[in-house]
Amino acid sequence: EVQLVESGGGLVQPGGSLRLSCAASGFTFSDYWMSWVRQAPGKGLEWVANLKEDGSEIYYVDSVKGRFTISRDNAKKSVYLQMNSLRAEDTAVYYCARGVYHFDNWGQGTLVTVSS
Amino acid sequence: DIVMTQSPDSLTVSLGERATINCKSSQSVLYSSNNKNYLAWYQQKPGQPPKLLIYWASTRESGVPDRFSGSGSGTDFTLTISSLQAEDVAVYYCHQFYNTPRTFGGGTKVEIK
C-alpha cells in the first residue's frame, strides 16, 4: 500500500523558517517525481513545487521562488520542503503528492501557520 | 500560467440524480503529439486529502466507481456523476498538468438536495 506521511508543520513567526518532510513507503520511491501542494484554510489547491526522480529537474510556483527549496533523499525515501522567509499567506495545509502529471497518491498533510 | 475556471461554484442535487461540473482552461491542454488531454479531476471530502478520480480527461482511476466519468477536449471539460450517492458529497477540483506551474480550478462543492 502506498503511504505518504508528512511532518514538520507548526506555528512560525513571519520571516521564520520551517522544514517539511514526507516519508514514502509501499512503492519504489526513486521511480517517481514528487510534488508539494498546499491548501490555505477554506481555500482551493495550489501546486507549490515538484522534482524529478533523481532531483535533476526542479520547478516552483512563482510565489515561492527564492524562498522555498524542494529536495529529496532516495535512500531515505523522503522528500523535503525547506521554507524560508515565511509570510502569512503561506499559511496552509501542505500535502506531498506522487506523480509528474496527475497526482495518484497524497499524504494527509501537515499544517503550517505563519503568525505573530 | 493556465487558468482553470470551474462552474458552478456549488451544486445541490437529489440522491440518484445526475451532477455535472464544468472546467474551462485558458488555453488548450491537448498535447497534439499524443492526442492526450493533460487534465485530471479530484474529489476532496472534509478533513481529507484530495483523491484522484479521473486523468487524461476521461480515464477513471482504479477503484473509482463507474458513476464518475470525465469528458471534453482542448479547453472544455466535464465531470459527470451519473447517479449521486450520499458519499459523493465533496468538493471537486480539475487540474491541468499540461505545463508548469500546475494549476487547479477553484473547486465545485456538491451537496445533497
Structure characterization notes:
The complex is a heterodimer of chains A (116) and B (113). By secondary structure, chain A is mostly beta strands. In chain A, 0% of the residues lie in helices and 50% in strands. The model of chain A has no long low-confidence stretch (mean pLDDT 98). Chain B is mostly beta strands and 113 residues long. Chain B contains no helices and 13 strands. In chain B, the strands form three sheets. In chain B, strands 2, 6, 7, 8, 11, 12 and 13 form a seven-stranded mixed sheet that branches. A four-stranded antiparallel sheet of chain B has the order 1-3-10-9, with no helix packed on it. A two-stranded antiparallel ribbon of chain B has the order 4-5. In chain B, strand 7 and strand 8 form a beta hairpin. Chain B starts with a strand and ends with a strand. The chains are: A mainly beta (116), B mainly beta (113). Chains A and B meet through strand 5 and strand 10 of A and strand 6, strand 7 and strand 12 of B.
Q: Report the end-to-end length of chain A measured between terminal Cα atoms.
A: 40 Å
Low-pLDDT regions of chain A: none
Q: What's the Cα radius of gyration of chain B? A: 13 Å
The largest pleated sheet of chain A is described as:
7 strands, mixed
Helix proportion range of chain B: under 10%
Query: Globular, elongated, flat, extended or rod-shaped: what is the shape of chain A?
Result: globular
Shape of chain B: globular
Which secondary-structure class do the elements of chain A indicate? mainly beta
- Write down the Rg of chain A: 13 Å
- Overall pLDDT score of chain A: 98
Order of helices and strands of chain A: EEEEEEEEEEE
| Number of beta-strand segments of chain A | 11
- The H-and-E topology of chain B, N to C, reads as EEEEEEEEEEEEE
